[in-house]
Predict the structure.
Amino acid sequence: MKDINENDFGKIDLNLLIVLVIMAEERSVTNAAKRLHLGQPAMSAALKRLREMFDDPLFIRTSRGMLPTTRAEKLVGFFRPVLQNVHRAIFDFPSFNPAADSYNFRIGMSDWVEHWLMADLLEILSAEAPGITITVLGSDPYKDLQMIRDDKADVIISVGKDLTQEAGRENLVQFGFKTVWDRKQIEIEKPLSIEDFIKYDHLLVSYRGANQSLIDSQLALSERKRTVRYVTPNFASQPLILSRLPVFTTVPEGLVDVWCKRYDFDFDDVPVETSKYHLSLLWNNRREKEPAIEWILHKLKALIAGKTKSIRAEQ
């Protein structure tokens, strides 16, 4: 701490400053002792120590009570707001009232998560928390933790697996992948066979521009290969492409219900083994107890649980 000699504080009792302020307000040793729940001898001893500390009488006995000296008045004028601020810092716990407060939450997510969740979240907030705004930050598993460490996002909805001491993580649901196509472009029988799967071109989402995935490795085990016609870091353009071309795309399970209802697409299980992933919430551990962060985490958990239940019920 700059400009502070920590050793000096070991020589004094900071509780004496409270005695000083209360004495200036009461101007009576008896009344001040009652407010401080001290006996008369303890109060007199505290005044003695204060006078020694500041080398000043501080309070003079008069017919109008114990009047503060000029030095005491200056000290009280300085210490009263300091003690009030200390009291607020210790005892006034931060609060958050979503119905009345204004707050902008920065939430990191990939574009498919935004597509899946945000319309529902905004509808909820418009009814329950009209002063709350949302800023969505583009994120992916490779940069989620860095965004949390740098405090660039309040919360991240992540599919990553990495852990760090700075970040809290709660796994909410495990999803797989489904293959989706436009039934007007591709007319096939279900279940989707490997032969049909490799017959048509594919779209691929890759956060790092790779033109292959685990699917291609699985196909290679049986000496099969698919053609990846289009690689993109985002899912947003894929419905338009699917509606115009006979192509497949394999997407997170959470996105399938939204697309199939909106665009009348069809879907099925991927005909080769694919990995599962957890949808998780990430936050900075330094901010875990902030009421606003606790509130938005609760809202996101409830929303994801409800959406997941709906998906499971329709499958």
